[in-house]
Amino acid sequence: MLYVSHGSGLVRLAYLLTGDRDAAEDITHEAFAKVGARLFGLKDPDKAGGYLYRTVVNLSRGYTRGISRQRKLEARLRPSQDLAQPSLEDRDEVFQILLRLPQRQRAALYLRHYLGLNEAGAAEILGISTSAMKSLTHRATEACRTQMREEVR
Amino acid sequence: MNVEARIETALRETLGEINLRTPSPPDVVRRVRRRRTVRLISAAVALSVVTSGGFLAVRDLWRVRPVEPATPGVVPFKVLPVKVGWRPLELVGSPLAPRGFPDCTRDLVSFFPELTDRSAAITLRPRKGVQCGLAWWSDGFWTGADGQRYQPPPASPEQYSPNGKPPKGRLLLMGTGSARMGAPFSGKACELQAPVTYSVQLADETIEVGSIDAPVCEVGAYPEDAKASPYQYQFGGLETPAGSLTPRLEIEERRGGRFLDFVLQLTNKTEDSIVIGRCPFYDATFVSGGQKAALRSYLNCPEAPDSIPPEEGARFQIRLPLNGIKGPGKLHLLLRDENRVMHRVASAVIEGG
Predict the structure, then answer these.
(1) Nearest-CA distance B159 → chain A (Å)
(2) Phi/psi of residue B87, each to 5°?
(3) Can you name the residues that pair with B255 across neighbouring β-strands?
(4) A32, B47: Cβ pair inside 8 Å?
(5) Which residues of B254-289 are buried (b: 16+ CB within 10 A; e: fewer)?
(6) Are A91 and B98 in contact, with CB atoms under 8 Å apart?
(7) Of A81, A29, A108, the residue nearest B11 (C-alpha)
(8) What is the DSSP string of A54-94?
(9) CA end-to-end span of chain A, whole Å?
(10) What is the CA radius of gyration of chain B?
(11) Which of B183, B196, B256, B340 stands 20 to 30 A from A139 (CA)?
């Protein structure tokens, strides 16, 4: 049930953070293995989903930091090529802006806007306080807003 | 659309089709490649307990938006932008292909070559049910019997555009529309060894139009460098499936001030099958007091059925961002093509969220 409920959400987060489809798949599987192994020891098993997302965030950070693939991320993660999707004007522009954000800001926007978590839920996943989460989301949104304005000019 | 809504839309549209390739938990365990046998076994046991729905059944203590399963029989929602600054067909002369439509390739179009002893032309028609985008300019060229090649220079594009500006984007081919491109012979082409063959580029492929055994090459018959024209769109008349289909709105879900999900059902109440043909676009507007949220897009025709039999219909999922509007209001939808509004439908009042 965990796999069915969260599998797609996890791989999408990993893909947004790493830009690598195969790595996203492996990171997600690794997260399930890590959390699954600790499930008996969890104080609150109902929070397994949150642990999964946090694990994906941490594993993704290790992936990009360890191999310095940030530069490849923008080259790879172009929706019109990687996803064989139509490239849509506004979506391309905004998604490219998202890719230029630091990884934690991307994760914050994904948790808040894609998963629809409230600030407390998203903060728990990232392992930060609610006020820090609020600040992180605000900085990410403002960075996007500034870049959108610059591209309009 | 505010920044948050744009971010959400970009994430959903780009990431929405990413799913795990591996279908079931046991595969997950097998694919983890580490030499941690104990952890693998623990993971397998834990996952099997979870999936059996025992005391570890998952309850979402925090709000997580589940991935919406595709509703059977509904064409999924996609924004296929109508060109910004769109003007009616009679002004721009030719419709432009949205970005989501594929390039016209050999398998999508039919060819109708024309050859005289001093000119060549080719007409492309989309195959039945096809909607594709055609580059305005093709690298057409003449080839002599000895392999020498001559490519006529292109004419100034402004000459062929009703508004005097060079056409941008791709020409939309669908329905009974067609595109014709011609290449006259010229003084320089006469230097090629006969017979000469005319070829055009279509997407990534070179297509031979035909050969002229003995082109007329009298001195002074042509300008030295006759120019090649771009594709000229030939209007085949409107095919308006929405004109014959009966529309109906089905409101599905309102998520506060974020989105309004609804389905546009188009039903064939005639006695003949209707081919979708030219893809209509819509203007969807939610109005609440003095506030308004709007979306314009082509219907997701590429993923819709090619034709609709009598008494059947096609249902199109549409998601309208509400830009924070929370009060009750009404949804209005105009279904139209480039020239006219074909249908106007409105919902009953939708409660606030």
Answers:
(1) 28
(2) -130, 160
(3) B259
(4) yes
(5) beebbbbbbbbbbbbeeeeebebbbbbbbbbbbebe
(6) no
(7) A108
(8) HHHHHHHHHHHHHHT-HHHHHHH--HHHHT-----HHHHHH
(9) 48
(10) 27
(11) B256
Whole-angstrom distance, CA of residue B213 vs CA of residue B226: 20
Cα dist from A49 to A46, A107, B17, B61, whole Å: 7, 15, 21, 10
- Best CA proximity match to B249, nearest among B235, B263, B230: B263
Please list the residues that pair with B240 across neighbouring strands: none
The C-alpha torsion from B263 through B264 and B268 to B273, rounded to 10°, is: -90
Longest dimension (CA), chain A: 55
Select from A10, A49, A94 the Cβ nearest to the Cβ of B58: A49
Tokens of A100: 């230029």
Instruction: Locate B300 and state its tokens.
Output: 């997701």
A36–B46 CB contact, under 8 Å: yes
Tokens of B236: 């085949």
Which helix (H) or strand (E) is B143 found in, with range? strand B141-143
pTM of the model: 0.36
Nearest chain A alpha carbon to B15? A12
Q: Which of B139, B163, B161 is nearest to B151 (CA)?
A: B139
Burial annotation B300-315 (CB, 10 A radius, 16+ → b, else e): bbbebeebbeeeebbb
Both structure tokens of A123? 């903060």
Q: Residues of A with CB below 8 A from B46's CB?
A: 36-37, 39-40
DSSP bridge pairs for B321: B259
CA of B144 to nearest chain A CA: how many angstroms apart?
Answer: 38
Q: Which of residues 111-140 of A touch B (CB under 8 A)?
A: 113-118, 120-121, 124
Is B9 in Cβ contact with A141 (below 8 Å)?
A: no
Residue B255: alpha-carbon gap to chain centroid: 28
Bridging pattern class, strands B313-321 and B74-75: parallel
At residue B243, the pLDDT reads: 64
Each residue's pLDDT tens digit, B49-68:
444 432 222 222 222 233 34
Q: What is the pLDDT of residues B143-190, one digit of tens each?
A: 999 999 988 887 766 555 555 555 567 887 877 677 888 777 777 788
pLDDT digits (tens, 9 = 90+) for A47-71: 677 888 888 888 888 776 655 544 5
How many angstroms away from the CA of B288 is the closest CA of chain A?
24
Three-state SS annotation for B43-106? HHHHHHHHHCCCCCCCCCCCCCCCCCCCCCCEECCCCECCCCCCCCHHHHCCCECCCCCCECCH
Q: CA-to-CA distance for A105 and A98, rounded, in angstroms?
A: 9
DSSP A40: G
Residue A99 at interface with chain B, using a CB cutoff of 8 Å: no
